[in-house]
Amino acid sequence: GYGAVYLARANFYMARKDFKAALLDLEQADHLMPGSALVPLGFAQALLLQGDNAGALEAAQKANSIDLTLLPSYYYLGRGYIVNEEYAEAVRPLQLYLMYETQDGSAYAMLGQALTLTQDYPSAIDALNTALRLDPSQVQCYVYRGIAYLRTDNLAGAEVNFKRANDYFPDSFDVNIGLT
To answer: In the Cβ-directed half-sphere of 84, how many Cα atoms lie within 13 Å?
Structure first.
């Protein structure tokens, strides 16, 4: 129906970074598709892109509560928790997402970040290795892998990763501390 058209157009507007238009179409879709998990999922995506982290997390939670089988909701939950610095909360949704989306380097990178910041260093290293293997552009992994190696007393591994991270983030506090 028309709700699906508004959803599709909202995705088009998000791709063009016209978040105001996307949010207007999502509101229309919400009126035409009450109870659909796809609408709050769209809101989660748009609000994250717009920088409304709290609103995005709330929308992802709503989408997930409506339909537990909607796989992207787990990605947006994990991302929302990370952006809100709720790292322990991010781990489970990202693990569930990655059970099915095994080739998503950005999701592995987020999982590795969350695991590093919750001090599960061996699991973090595994996730970060996978992220970099799947998507070498996930360069933030070098920072978190450096931290994980440092915390597990693998000083050589930490040094290699912090040097690599320094190529991308020369002003990073974590990188500069790791290099000293």
So the answer is: 18
Alpha-carbon distance of 171 to 50, in angstroms, equals: 25
- Indicate the pTM of the whole model: 0.90
**Structure tokens, 167:** 């190529």
Query: What are the structure tokens assigned to 154, written together?
Result: 């693998």
Tokens of 17: 């970074």
Tokens of 13: 């507007």
DSSP the chain: -HHHHHHHHHHHHHHTT-HHHHHHHHHHHHHHSTT-THHHHHHHHHHHHHT-HHHHHHHHHHHHHH-TT-HHHHHHHHHHHHHTT-HHHHHHHHHHHHHH-TT-HHHHHHHHHHHHHTT-HHHHHHHHHHHHHH-TT-THHHHHHHHHHHHTT-HHHHHHHHHHHHHH-TT-HHHHHHH-
Token output for 20? 């105001």
Residues 126-168: tens digit of each pLDDT:
999 999 999 999 999 999 999 999 999 999 999 999 999 999 9
Tokens of 153: 């007393």
54 burial (CB, 10 Å; 0-12 / 13-18 / 19+) is exposed
Tokens of 109: 């990178």
